[in-house]
Structure formats: structure tokens, C-alpha cells
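Not sure how to ask, but would you mind making up any protein sequence you like and the C-alpha cells describing how it folds?
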Amino acid sequence: MLFLKGDEGQGMVEYALVLALVAVVIVAILSVFGPRVGNMYSRITYGW
């Protein structure tokens, strides 16, 4: 397989983009479900 000059860093950039996308998804999920999970643990801890 032939590689163009400057192609070496392409894989690292792709991994960084995937990692950034995963981080954004995790932050979005935590912002939506975070309060619910916190309330659930509070009810379990305090027995309400």
C-alpha cells in the first residue's frame, strides 16, 4: 500500500477525534442523568 508524505499522523488524529466524541457523549449523558442518579443514591443512603 502506498502512503502519501505526511500520512503518518493521520491515525493519531482519528483516535483523538474519536476520544473527543466519546468525551462529549459522556458529558451529555451525565448532564441529563446525573441529577437522577444523585437522587437515587441519596434515597438509598438516607432511606427516604
